[in-house]
């Protein structure tokens, strides 16, 4: 066997051991010493080679949504709510004249109907609001049971896969009266991540069906979304009331982290990559019954960011109430990589599920 065939044989053995290139994390690391390559593949198998050849293949990159791209605002609401409850919810939209210029399309859709409803699109905010009211006056037939789960996931998946109209950077606000049923939403989560969509969901405390509480957490916790605390039907309008100054504001998501904390301590977060210089909003959302725990036991909390290049240490200012279920603060940050930490102090050891988000306001 000549040298070339020996090298080919060794390389074949090496790449037989390395997982398929379609598997996450496939690859190998190598060190050259005394004219030989010592290589370890992803399965921790070791190889000694005379030569190591490298090649690459093209993979289509995930779309990178820019802050300046035209955006969509979508309001999804369950037809399970009574007309009077929906009227109070929708009325709040008439009180929000401030619209960020990036939002070029506005849409609404009724969910949880026997037949999946079409999304109604408008090119301006006034037309969007005025087109909702006729829909709530003539709701389509509903499920009529407490077994069927919400079809929010089907509506969103259908839209993103078949007609992703200005989906990049979209904001979706959904109010539900039933949970989705347990299902695999990994594909939908991937689409929400790809398009950097901010999905905000609140489910009425007077829920009438569905068993997929965890599905809602997956849709918001694994994306740039927020799961808001529950309220009863009579007070569900409070969310659109509090959102009226922010519902169509534009901010660019750059970081997500979900943590469970209790008592006092610190927790290391994933590194934060700041894409450009500017002002960033650090938001801190509590979920479910965490509101009561927060109000009764919270003493102090603080996000700490350390710039890897300059070693500059930044601290989020004291949390201020921003919207229902969310506290937030603003911080000027420069482009670069930051090590992240969350410091917290509570009077009790009740466990808190916290959603941490960072958005650009620039």
TrEMBL record:
Occurrences of domain DUF7154 (ranges): 258-360
Superkingdom as given in the UniProt entry: Eukaryota
InterPro entries: DUF7154
Gene Ontology biological-process entries: innate immune response
PANTHER family: ANF_RECEPTOR DOMAIN-CONTAINING PROTEIN-RELATED (PTHR23062:SF3), HYPOTHETICAL PROTEIN C.ELEGANS (PTHR23062)
Protein name listed in UniProt: DUF7154 domain-containing protein
Organism: Caenorhabditis brenneri
């Amino acid at each position: 066997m000549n040298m070339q065939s020996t090298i080919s044989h060794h390389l074949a053995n090496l790449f037989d051991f390395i997982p398929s290139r379609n598997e996450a994390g496939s690859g190998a690391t190598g060190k050259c010493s005394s004219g030989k390559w010592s290589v370890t593949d992803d399965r921790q198998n070791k190889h000694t080679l005379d030569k190591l050849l490298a090649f690459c293949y093209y993979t289509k990159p995930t779309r990178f949504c820019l802050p300046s791209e035209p955006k969509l605002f979508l309001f999804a609401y369950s037809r399970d709510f009574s007309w009077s409850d929906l009227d109070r919810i929708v009325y709040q939209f008439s009180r929000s004249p401030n619209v960020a210029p990036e939002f070029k399309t506005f849409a609404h859709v009724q969910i949880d109907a026997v037949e999946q409803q079409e999304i109604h699109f408008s090119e301006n905010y006034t037309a969007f609001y005025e087109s909702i009211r006729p829909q709530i006056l003539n709701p389509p037939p509903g499920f009529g049971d407490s077994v069927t789960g919400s079809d929010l996931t089907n509506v969103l998946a259908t839209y993103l896969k078949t007609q992703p109209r200005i989906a990049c950077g979209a904001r979706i606000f959904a109010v539900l009266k039933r949970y989705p049923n347990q299902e695999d939403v990994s594909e939908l989560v991937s689409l929400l991540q790809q398009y950097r969509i901010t999905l905000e969901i609140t489910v009425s405390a007077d829920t009438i069906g569905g068993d997929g509480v965890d599905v809602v957490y997956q849709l918001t916790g694994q994306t740039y979304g927020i799961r808001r605390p529950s309220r009863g039907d009579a007070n569900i309008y409070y969310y659109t009331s509090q959102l009226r100054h922010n519902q169509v504001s534009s901010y660019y998501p750059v970081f997500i982290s979900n943590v469970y904390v209790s008592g006092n301590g610190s927790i290391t977060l994933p590194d934060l990559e700041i894409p450009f210089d500017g002002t960033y909003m650090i938001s801190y959302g509590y979920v479910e019954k965490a509101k009561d725990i927060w109000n009764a036991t919270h003493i102090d909390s603080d996000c700490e960011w350390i710039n890897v290049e300059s070693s500059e240490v930044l601290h989020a200012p004291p949390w201020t109430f921003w919207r229902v279920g969310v506290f937030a603060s603003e911080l000027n940050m420069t482009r670069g990589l930051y090590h992240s930490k969350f410091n917290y102090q509570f009077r009790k050891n009740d466990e808190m599920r916290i959603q941490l988000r960072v958005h650009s306001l620039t």
